[in-house]
Amino acid sequence: MDLLPVTADYDQISERMRQVAASTYMEMIEGLRPHVAEALSDPAGIHDTEPGRLQAYTAMVKLQASLVKELGLLYRVQDRPHVDDAQDMISLVDHERELALAQEREDKAVAVAAELAELRVRLELGQREVVDLAVARDRVARGLKALGR
Fold first, then answer.
1. Are 5 and 61 spatial neighbours (Cβ–Cβ below 8 Å)?
2. Angle at the Cα of 65 (from 77 to 71), degrees rounded to 5?
3. Residue 34 pLDDT level (bands cut at 50, 70, 90)
4. How many Cβ atoms are within 10 Å of 39's Cβ, its own excluded?
5. Tens digits of per-residue pLDDT, 93-130?
6. What pTM value is reported for the model?
């Protein structure tokens, strides 16, 4: 058997084949799901089932389990995640310090927003008071004109 050279497209081909295999496994698993559910639905009635059917049910359950396992192996779900030592790792103390700084920044931002909201409310109340005074002055002036007639 000759070894084939690894091409530049190897990663793309590998990913595509992984997707094809995964979709095929998923189709098989979904096809077996109703039969497995039927086999597992009535464990008390298992004594009335003939041995050939029991073997078939057992084989289906084993097949579905192995397909799920193969699907997991395909995506390497059992493998431990590769942690590169060169990755930036921070200590717990540094992480807590960063969290405390972030909390302080958030508290300051909330305080500033609260002050701005309070100033807006005061400004709106002041404007409303000026408008109310102007309306009252107009009413008084109209009342005086009416009395003057």
1. no
2. 35
3. confident
4. 21
5. 988 999 999 999 999 999 999 999 999 988 888 888 77
6. 0.37
Domains of the chain, residue spans: 10-74, 91-149
Q: Which amino acid is at 29?
A: I
Query: Which residue is it, tokens 């990663």?
Result: 11
In total, the chain counts a number of residues equal to: 149
Average pLDDT, the chain: 78
Q: In the predicted model, what is the mean pLDDT of residues 52-65?
A: 80
- SS3 letters across the chain: CCCCCCCCCHHHHHHHHHHHHHHHHHHHHHHHHHHHHHHHHCHHHHHHCCHHHHHHHHHHHHHHHHHHHHHHHHCCCCCCCCCCCCCCCCCHHHHHHHHHHHHHHHHHHHHHHHHHHHHHHHHHHHHHHHHHHHHHHHHHHHHHHHHHC
